């Protein structure tokens, strides 16, 4: 449910909503939601000084109802070496 909600929020922000992918992984510390977007939308999802990413994390934490959850915005640019 959290992954779907996060995907919905991110799709509303970006210019390429079909490229948005949110995957959920469970680990010892709780759930991790990895957000992947089109490279051109990365700055849009992070926002100035990380404000948009922080706001997304706040909303997801509220929806998680006290359960530990982490939101990672993944940079998928493969050209870096």
TrEMBL record:
A probable RNA-binding protein. Gene3D superfamilies: 3.30.300.20. Its main location: cytoplasm. SUPFAM superfamilies: Prokaryotic type KH domain (KH-domain type II). Keywords: Cytoplasm, RNA-binding. Coiled coil: none annotated. PANTHER family: RNA-BINDING PROTEIN KHPA, UPF0109 PROTEIN SCO5592. It comes from Arthrobacter bussei. This is RNA-binding protein KhpA. The keyword Cytoplasm applies. Belongs to the KhpA RNA-binding protein family. One of its GO terms (cellular component) is cytoplasm. One of its GO terms (molecular function) is RNA binding. The keyword DNA damage does not apply. PROSITE patterns: KH_TYPE_1. It is found in: Cytoplasm.
């Amino acid at each position: 449910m959290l992954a779907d909600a996060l995907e919905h929020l991110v799709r509303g922000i970006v210019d390429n909503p079909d490229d948005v992918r949110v995957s959920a992984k469970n680990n010892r510390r709780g759930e991790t939601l990895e957000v992947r977007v089109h490279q051109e939308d990365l700055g849009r999802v992070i926002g100035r000084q990380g404000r948009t990413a922080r706001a997304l994390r706040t909303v997801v934490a509220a929806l998680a109802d006290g359960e530990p959850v982490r939101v990672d915005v993944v940079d998928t640019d493969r050209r870096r070496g």
